Every structure is written in structure tokens, then in C-alpha cells.
Amino acid sequence: MDTWLAYLTSGSWDPRLVATWILAAYLVFILVTAFALVFTSRQWANDGVPFVTGKGPLSILYQHYRFVINGPDLIRQGYSKFSDGLFEIPRTFRPGQVILCKPELIEELRNSWSSVASPEPWIDQLLQISHVMPGYFPKGGGWPAIAKTTPGVIRGTVYKQLERYVPSMNDAIISQLQKVNLEDGECTVNCFDFAYSVVVRSGSFAMVGERLSQNEEYLKAVKDHILGMIMTTRVQFLIPDCLKKYIGGFISTLATLGTRWNMKSSRKILLKHFDARADEYKIEIAKGSSVNGKQGNPETSEKPVEIFKWLYESSIVRGRWSYSEVIGEMLLLQFAFIYTTAYGLYGALAELSRRPEYISALRAEAETALSEMGTSIAACNRMVLMDSFLKECQRLHPPAAVSAHRVCVTPLALSNGIVLKPGTHVGVPSGWIQRSSKSYTDPEIFDGYRFVKKAAAGSQDSSLVDLSPDYLVFGMGVHACPGRWMASALMKLVFAHLIRQFDILPESESAPLTGSLSFEEFYVPNFGLKLKLRRRESEK
């Protein structure tokens, strides 16, 4: 021992020996990590539930690797093998993810009580709230109480007053389209960034009002914060919870290193604007104009109530939540609504550019609806072909291969005799159900008229926002997305304006819609995909 210490302090280290020790330490780390992954995967595995490629040590490690870099394909393989049952995918240092394929099992999950299988722990895991957003919500309280209330707020503000949001959403869309830089009547745009920018601007009106929806600094911060949050949470998800308090901050910085999606700096900008907007709310409340006051009554006001204002008044006037909880919930809502809607619009725009045979019919439908009914929900509802086209795009290009996520709060007993352990993540392989011949005729063929034909045949669940066992993009049951009506109206208005003003062409006919890598069950857009916009002769 004394000899070894003397060697270390002598300064005469042999570089080859040092390199050998570093390599040995690295190999030990790899072996310990691999052993821990195999051990925990087996410990948390549910009895009677098969893994996709088996439960041998190498198979488990292989599944961990595939799930991280291309989860949708692993889920496809599992669905093809176990379409009449269920299967499990091991996850890094946490309970596994059980995928229910059989329709009867999916229905049992839909009907299960939230006290047995709840989506809230899954959202908490997905967003890594305690690590990515420390200090906004009470510690140790589980899923934030304010987040449990927000879906009802959205139904009370957005859904019931959707007609009132449409004119300003429409103005925001027009404003964003005016920023398209045309040269000789045409230009090339990045497909995802274009869709993302439109949704950020128009969605921000519903959240924070007209002024901020036109503030470029605020809008850029929203975009950067959401993408930074996605990058950070996905990397954080791979780290054991016991280590996050020690290396979580470093991991958060590392996740967005070299990108413009700096979550911390963009969050500072958002907080500055939130605080300024809150000061304006204080003045309005002092003057008697509030959500619950006579002047601000949502049933009589000409303008719809901003979601931020509703949440803010609930914290200040009724004392239900702290201001920090309101800010935390606003950050979560931005993530939930804006990114998912932007992804849906991105896929639809990419498909539209490659399918010119639909343009004339879609254009005629939009022009008729808007000329007869104006910019309204009635006009959006009149666009039945556009609704079908968008739904077909969502069917083939969902943001994730799994939906209807739940986490078992207590043991979940299924009708096939299997009992899932508490902590197990349960989901439905919606991305592959929607491509299955059991659900659709010619499922791999794009048919923009598919849901028009279903409606003509008497189907009651053919519209974009309808929920059904073979279309689960928005989830299922009482926990389905409450903002899907606004997302539908927004996408239709964007489409209507685009096809009336421009011809939309692909820069490449063969470029994939998803990136070369996915992350777990989530698809990653092809950030390099571009479109050509050419102003129509009638618009010049």
C-alpha cells in the first residue's frame, strides 16, 4: 500500500498503466450497469407477461438498447407477435412497460378506475417534473393538484368558448403566414419549424392573450423551452432516480449542449413575460374585471378568457394554488398542447405536399365553407374532406407508437388471469393498431377519403376528434386529450389559408417524415424536411 501511495505521489506515472486502469474502470462500469439492468428488469417483470425477444440477459440488454434508439420498431415487433395478448418491454432502472394488444384487455384498461391505473404518474415520469421543474410544485405531493384541475378548466374555457377563440387564432395564423419570405413568388421552408411556429403563435393567444401572441421574444422562448424540455426529460429519464439529485443539473446542461434549445435561459424570458402579464391581471382585478366578475364573465365577454388568467385568478382570488404552481402548470400546458399539435400539423403538411391530387378538392371545400360561413367553427365542421385528410395523416403519423398511458397504482387484475404489479407502466400500441389490417382495409395505403367513406357508411366515430378502439391518437376514456377540438380547428384553419394562397410542393419526394432515431415510443420529426411554397397566380 505504501509503495502504491508513493508511486501516485511521485509524479512519474506510466501513461500506459494509467490508460489500462481507465479502460478497466470503464469496463467495470459497463459490466455493473449491464448487470443492474438485467437484475432490475427481471425483478420488476410481471409474471406471465412475455418480453418481445425473451428474458435472457443478452435479450434484455438488446431490448433496452432498441427501445432507447428505436422504440416504435420494437413495439411493432411485439405487436406482430402478441396481437391477441400483451407483452412487456423492460425500462431503465424502473418498472417495465406492458403493452396491451387484445381489444378486450384495452377495454378493461379504459374502464379501470384512476385509483387502480392512473395517467398522472406516467405524465410525472415523462416530464420528470421534480428534476426538470424543481420548486414549482409542492414536494412529495404526487401529481400536482393544479394539474388535476386543468383539464376541467380547458373544457370550461377552450371547448365551451371555442367559437370565440377562432377569430384571434385566425389572425395569428395570417400574421405568421405574412412572415413567409417569398422570392419571385416562392420560397423553401423547414416543414417542422413552419408548423411549430404557426402553432406557437396561434396557441399562445388562447394561453396568454393577444399581446404576447405577437411578441417575438416570447414566442421564440416558448419554442426553445419546449424543445429543450423534450431533450432534457428524455435524457433524465435514463438516469436512476437515486443519482438525479447529484448529477441531474449536469445532465440537464449536457442534454442541450450545442443546441439553441437552452431550457434555463428561455425559461427566464418566459417568467419575465408571465410576471408582466400577471401584473396586468392585478390591475384588471382591482378594476373589477375578472373571470368571475360581471365585466369578465366568460358567458358575456366578447373575448375568450385566457387560460393563464383563469389559473392566475384561481390562485390569487380564490387562493387555491400558489403563483409558482400556476407558472409551473403554464409551462406544462405549453408542452402538452403546442408540441403535439405542431407534430400533427407537420405530418399533415408533409403528406399534403406529396399528394397534389387532393389539393383541388380541399381548396374548393375550404373556399366554399369560409365564404358561406366566415371564419367560424361551423366552417371548420363543414370541411369534412379536410377532417378526413387530417385524420388519415394522424393515423399514419402519430407522435408516438403508444398512447392511453397508465401506471398501476395498485395491482391491476386482467381477465386473462395476469395481475400487473404496482408501478407497472401500461399502454396501448395505437401506432400499430392504426396500421393493422384488423382495424382498416389496406392500412398501409394513404386514403384521404377514408373517414368520409366511413361517415357515409354510418360510422359515428369518423371525425378527427372522435375516440374509437382503432384510433387512439388522443387517448381514450375520461383521460382523453381535452384540447383536441382546438387542435382540430387550428389545423383546419392553417390548411385553409395555405392551400388558398399557395401551391405546396415537396423539396424531396423520398425524405422520411421521422428522423433516423426515435426515443422510446416517441417519433422524432425529420428536422431537415423542407417544403416549397409557391404563391398561386390568383393571389399575386
Properties at a glance:
iron; 540 residues; monooxygenase activity
What order do the helices and strands come in, and which of them pair?
Elements: H1 2-10, H2 15-44, H3 57-81, E1 86-91, E2 94-100, H4 103-111, E3 117-118, H5 120-127, H6 129-132, H7 145-159, H8 162-177, E4 186-190, H9 191-208, H10 210-213, H11 216-236, H12 241-255, H13 263-286, H14 307-316, H15 323-354, H16 359-373, H17 377-382, H18 384-396, E5 403-408, E6 412-413, E7 419-420, E8 425-428, H19 430-433, H20 450-456, H21 484-501, E9 502-506, E10 530-535
Parallel strand pairs: 2-8
Antiparallel strand pairs: 1-2, 3-5, 4-10, 5-8, 6-7, 9-10
Helix pairs in contact: 2-3, 8-9, 8-21, 9-15, 11-12, 11-13, 11-15, 14-15, 15-18
Can you walk me through this structure?
The chain is an alpha+beta fold and 540 residues long. The protein has one domain: Cytochrome p450 (Orthogonal Bundle), CATH 1.10.630.10. The chain has 21 helices and ten strands. The strands form three sheets. A five-stranded mixed beta sheet has the order 1-2-8-5-3. The longest helix is centred in the middle third of the chain and has 32 residues. About 1% of the residues have low confidence. Belongs to the cytochrome P450 family.
